[in-house]
Amino acid sequence: MFHMKKISIRELHQDTGGWLRRAARAGTITVTDRGKPIAQITAIDERSRPNPFRTRTLRPGFARLAGKLGAGTDSTRLVSDDRAEG
Known about the structure:
Strands 1-2-3 form a three-stranded mixed beta sheet. By secondary structure, it is α+β, with helices and mostly antiparallel strands. It is built from five helices and three strands. The radius of gyration is 24 Å and the shape is elongated. The protein has helices at 9-14, 16-26, 52-55, 60-65, 75-85, and strands spanning 5-8, 29-33, 36-41. The model has no long low-confidence stretch (mean pLDDT 82). 1% of the residues are buried.
């Protein structure tokens, strides 16, 4: 069984990045102020977060450009072409 870690505000301030990485590895860390719990640092489960790029839908203006975009495409030409069509 994992014992929840408690740290003071001072400890958090001295090594914020380290404590955040520890929470990501080990679980929840409780932050205390003079011994009284005031906050918790909890890791985010990456598996439960959907990838926004996989579920996105392109707005109509961008969807029209989908076939025209490529490596090195000149944006000024695209804007000119779009204005000519409009």
